[in-house]
Amino acid sequence: MVNDDKAPQSSQDTTGGLNQDNGAQNAKQPEVTGTDATSLTRRGFLKTTAAVSAAALMSSLGQNYAHAQGNDRLRVGLIGCGGRGTGAAGDCAHAHPSVQIVALADLFQDRLNGARGSLAGQLKDQFKVNDDHTFVGWDAYQHLVKSDVDLVLMATPPGFRRITLQAAVEAGKHVFMEKPVAVDPAGVRSVIASSDLAAQKKLAVVTGTQRRHQANYIETINRIHDGAIGDVLSGQIYWNQGGLWLHERQPNWSDMEYQIRNWLYYTWLSGDHITEQHVHNIDVMNWVMNGHPVSAYAMGGRQVRTDPAYGQIFDHFAVEYEFANGARWSSQCRQIDGTDSRVAENVVGTKGTSNPSAGSIKGATNYRFDGPSRNPYEQEHVDLIESIRNGKPLNEGRRIAESTLTAIIGRESAYTGKQIKWDDAMNSTLDLLPAKLEFGPAPIPEVAIPGKTQLNRTQLIGNASKA
User: Count of domains in the chain?
Assistant: First the structure.
């Protein structure tokens, strides 16, 4: 996940561990199979529970207010110890001196060890992780959320984020979660349910859409909303760049371990790069439009990264998004070496144009942002921590879930060659989570072929066979 604007994300290659205990939320629940907690069944995760009882909700409302006021330490745990997780932990610590990193969780011991060594060297006295607060394995995340942490940082592959979010919210923890927050409509709905529960519990949910916390974007888009370029007619968004990392398969890796360590290349783990990476620009589009599109009409393919080592994802997409007011936006994303890079957004209105990333507006009155701006990867944590300490927790879960689904409908339209409508996607049964989460064989679904991959009105994609 080498992002032009968020380089530490490039090494995020870990799940953070998966397992479960029972909760009370209308969202999917993971379930342990066997006594060694080494795998999960999708059947258990699909169980729907009753709504949260009043007693359970009231018991949770008083949790995690030790840091709402005053100068007490904010105890932070990290789930997912790859490059992005390590970067997020550093950003959180740099955001406020009250932060202490006290717990780490990952599926793989080597990833946890790497993060532990790196963060101990970087953070000095703000790193206080003892051996009894390091957790490895499929159930590592569950041990971490049950520990004495106040805030959980989540940097697992996107396919697992709905699971870790649900567990953290049910445990009464504040959350910082990387984007995207899901890879399929089932995950999107789960994240919305968990975010709504977090709001009831007065828990913060902030996501890694750092542009939402970046001064030039905030000021420019506020001016667009105030009419600086008139009514928005259209726009263009881009994330075009070269290829990304690939880990060579080791003799002792099972199919499942290979896929997780190379999670970028499997739709069930990453959502494809339109979801995993381009969601940043898609989120800016939705921000400008104050909402999500009603449909997507796309094309895409796999022209360069054709080796089976690259899993099943495409290497380029082009999407036309239509909004309820008739505005149309074009989207491009590409990961192909030797091509021109472009990561940007452009907005066209009836009275002018804007480039939010440059903080510029051309219209009746020209404007260019020239104010101070803190590193946005730290600023998002500053805003999160301030909201917790002030007792007014931010909750960004629903809006990033909607931006994630916007990316998903673009992907599914490109996979099938069919127009995808928002309402159909939000209500679809498409769920890419494998039947079992355990080390061992894990067949790869076929690469989608537009015109041959059939559109199913409930699943939206015909080749969504479970790994």
Answer: 2
